[in-house]
Amino acid sequence: MVSRRDFLSMAAAVAAPEKSPPNIVFLLADDQRWDAMGCAGNRIIQTPNVDRLAARGVRFENNFCTTAICNASRASIFSGLHEKCHRTNIIRQDFTADQYSRTYPALLRKNGYRTGFIGKYGVGAISQVVRKDAFDYTTGNPGPERQGLTRQMGEQALDFLSGCSRKQPFCLSVSFRAPHARDPDPRQYLYEESSAPLYENVTIPVPKTAAPRYFDMMPPFIQKSESRTRWGWRFDTPEKYQQMVKGYYRLITEIDAAVGRIVDGLAKSGFADNTVVIYTSDNGYFLAEHGLADKWYLFEESIRTPLVYFDPRLPARARGKVRGEDTLNIDLAPTILSLAGVKPPVAMQGRDLAPLINGRRVPWRRDWFYSHGYPHPKIPKSEGIRNGRWTYIRWVESEPLLEQLFHIEVDPLEEQSLAGDPAYGRQLNAMQKRWQQWNAALEAWRPDRDWQDPT
Questions:
Q1: pLDDT band at 5 (very low <50, low <70, confident <90, very high)
Q2: Which part of the chain has CATH 3.30.1120?
């Protein structure tokens, strides 16, 4: 017999409205490295709005991209797949209709979300603009980097919010072009005039590995690469280094101001209590480390990115936490889908971050695969494996094959490759074996099969 108390509890459960799925605001910077935030320990850069999100949310301090270049990383973010499987970096093709149907924005829209996309789409061919009719709201191609563009994107985000309703959940993706450099422009970083006073009276520390001897240790094909050419554009004198890094920081502070306006807009629109905000970047960035500029290679500065997750529904015990597990750009799609109650496709290779966000200790990845297959005569192709202790790099087109091995647990600046040291031959063999296992698994990947990381 059901007691009155039990009956009333059951009746209340039936009568209670179904919990609304959360809204999602996904904010993507372009070329922002992991340590270019105050909350990551940078005492110079000003990012108060992102810092506040981190203080009330979760920051992932070991977040990485699986390919350090704009188009491939963005394709991985959309699809939850490695470059070797979505292949938009290798042959520079756009998503097929079938591929796009398995991305997080397509699946959210199919499952009732109002979707918006603002900014740099960046997948496939350079001419590619946001896919026609793929979103409920889109502003089209924003064009190249220019002064005031970040502010404009923030205003467009507010315009999107003005068309939203509590009757339908939404997902807004804002893909900033900052702090990407405007490569043909001698100024490189095109910040607004109002940002010029920022950082005027500070001196940016020069990284230890910017010393010439570290560049001299690089393979000859890296010394002649596009990374060194762009180093000459930005960092070849002390004065230019200060000018350029301050410009880079100013653009990031402009993004932070846009983040603040978007968060305020959520509050004014009545969405703040049920909107998750995710902040990250497509790849890292060399600021003269190893005598290099830009990204592309499996070095820490190039692959490590910020990741801040804010959910107003998190319990107090889960807020303000920093997680140290290796998380990846391919984790974003399954995390966003799971957050919305949408089952990720079985072939997605990323992992749902929900257990980490909620403070649980769970088995996690032991290592991960990196590849960079962009066809450019001055950007050497590479692949490798990284785990919490070691980074292994294969320069796949070198003759004979050149490998590098860094013991990042004791050499976090990657000052010395141990690949040629017989004392580390066993470790080198172990990393080579893991590369073989990962490569074979990725080559065998199919979109209709369950994916599991190779063990």
A1: very low
A2: 371-443
* Model confidence pLDDT, tens digit, residues 304-349: 999 999 999 999 999 999 999 999 999 999 999 999 999 999 999 9
pLDDT digits (tens, 9 = 90+) for 107-147: 999 999 999 999 998 886 654 556 666 899 998 888 889 99
Distance CA 451, CA 350 (A): 9
Q: Assign domain 20-357 to its CATH architecture.
A: 3-Layer(aba) Sandwich (3.40)
Q: Which amino acid is at 189?
A: Y
Could you give the residue range(s) of every CATH 3.40.720.10 domain in the chain? 20-357
Each residue's pLDDT tens digit, 15-32: 333 578 999 999 999 999
Q: How many CB atoms lie within 10 A of CB 137?
A: 18
- Residue 284: which of 211, 370, 362, 368 has the closest Cα? 370
CB 310 within 8 A of CB 327: no
- Residue 115 main-chain phi, psi, to 5 deg: -115, 145
* Residue 81 backbone phi and psi in degrees, to 5: -120, 155
- 371-443 CATH, one of 1.20.1260, 3.30.1120, 3.30.160, 3.30.70: 3.30.1120
The helix (H) or strand (E) run that includes residue 122 is: none
